[in-house]
Amino acid sequence: MKVKLLFLICMIAGFSLTAQTNWILKKQKDGISVYSRPSETSSFDDLKVEVDLKGTLEQLASILLNIPNYTQWAYGTKISKVVKRTNENELIYYCEIEVPWPASNRDLYADLKVTRDSSGNSLQVVAVAKKDYLPVKDGLVRVPKSTGKWIATKVTPRTVHLVYTLELDPGGSVPAFVTNLFMTKGPLETFENLKKKMEGLNK
After folding, report:
1. pTM of the model as a whole
2. Residue ranges of domains in the chain, CATH in brackets
């Protein structure tokens, strides 16, 4: 009986793990693939983007650590600034995201940390929302949960493969058309812009 119960638990755990990785391709353009899957903790789907970028890991890190410049390439970013810098690889930043009417703009504080492997072949950047870092400003909705992960791997000395995932609860109510914007158009435009920035560094 115990053996059967243990087998059943393992089967359920295995099924759950499989379900969590069942990404669905939503959009593909210019080498950029956008995927989504139902979230286990939010009504907003999890997001994944995969793309090959021209350039190096350090060039990518320099772009991701340049917080004020997010307004130039990250979709919908109205304000982006560093609040506190812990060291060269970790900081807290603030950003406000423009959301089409009738929804309200969102804002968030996030802790961003860069981790490099000792071989120099991979790079990980993780940004985790800090919901209660400072009070919410009037007219804005604070994002209660956001975990973004950038995992970059060196393919060649001048090519990087990037996998970006996002688990998000945008807070408040969000119309379906806004959700669609941020699940398809938003990621595609963001990574098209990022791709151009990396290419601009490698002309």
Report:
1. 0.86
2. 2-200 (3.30.530.20)
